[in-house]
Design a protein that fits this description.
With 64 residues, the chain is mostly beta strands. It is built from no helices and 6 strands. Strands 3-2-1-5-6-4 form a 6-stranded mixed sheet, with no helix packed on it. A hairpin with a 4-residue loop joins strand 1 and strand 2. The chain is globular and about 25 Å long.
Length: 64
């Protein structure tokens, strides 16, 4: 499942994303290797690919 959201928090190796359409914040997500953590900002839109529907296991795959 892919879902568009906005970055709500950035830590050393992970990012949390808010999905406003369902009023939910993700667990800490990994970032795909082709995306630089330096280029990410709170409030920026990103595309997240999840391995299942629980919003726990996923990776940020694109900046929008």
């Amino acid at each position: 499942m892919n879902r568009k959201g906005k970055i709500s928090n950035i830590s050393l190796n992970s990012v949390r994303v808010i999905f406003e359409d369902i009023n939910t914040v993700s667990y800490e997500l990994k970032i795909a290797k082709h995306i630089s953590l330096i280029n990410l900002e709170v409030g920026q839109e990103v595309l997240v690919a999840f391995y299942n529907n629980d919003l726990k296991s996923g990776v940020i795959i694109a900046q929008i």
